[in-house]
Amino acid sequence: MTATALHIVTWNVLADAYIAKHDSYGGCAPRDLEPASRQRRLCASLSSLGADVYCLQEVDPAAHLAFAAALPDHRGWHLPKGRSKPDGCSTFAKRCWPALDVAEMSYDDDTGCVALTLTLRWGEASVAITNTHLKWSSPETAPSRHRGYRQAEQLLADPPRADAWIVCGDLNAEPSSAVLDRFRRAGLRSVHAETAFTCNAGGRPRKIDFTLCDGALNAVETPAPMRLNPVTPLPTAGCPSDHLPVETAFEYLRIGASPDT
Prior knowledge:
The chain is of the alpha+beta class.
């Protein structure tokens, strides 16, 4: 990684409130689901990843404070979901990357889903990093009624004013979906291979967590920390969420300046 690289991690860290609401964690060891222990392991994992920017989903307020303490060299922003949801999106950026703007978006529907966009100065240019968690709809749902697709449309209708754009998050859609096709048609390409599975929902490994970028950037994929198969339980002692973190290093193709240090 060169001095001009921007290292980003996106990760759905699994809010504790959703563990209690769902019965899909029966194959996990109870100790791996215990809230205090899981939070300590999440903090340790985030610290060890060493990213410049973290885009995290399913973060409740207490977890945001814990992550901020674990990342003292970073500034953090938290955007709660609406409709009394317990979680939201948190973005943390190293202090050496000057923040130019922070924009919040609540999607125009009844889901409470949000998008948090942080714009950083990168030498003489700027890069906008959007952190979002789209709502799931059945893949057979027509785009006009698909909640995730309509949220993607709203996000793309108001792009940030920056020299480069990165979109990160749990998009609740697979690479072949209409949702990802909509991002591709807007010039935002997926960085990682379609088989770089990020979760094991319903006993089927799938990729629903993405880092997308526009043509101003060159991306270097970081391999997933583990390979998933239909019987891989998540969370585990080694991975304290039901999603894997997705890492990417970016280089800006049109400048050679590095951030302030």
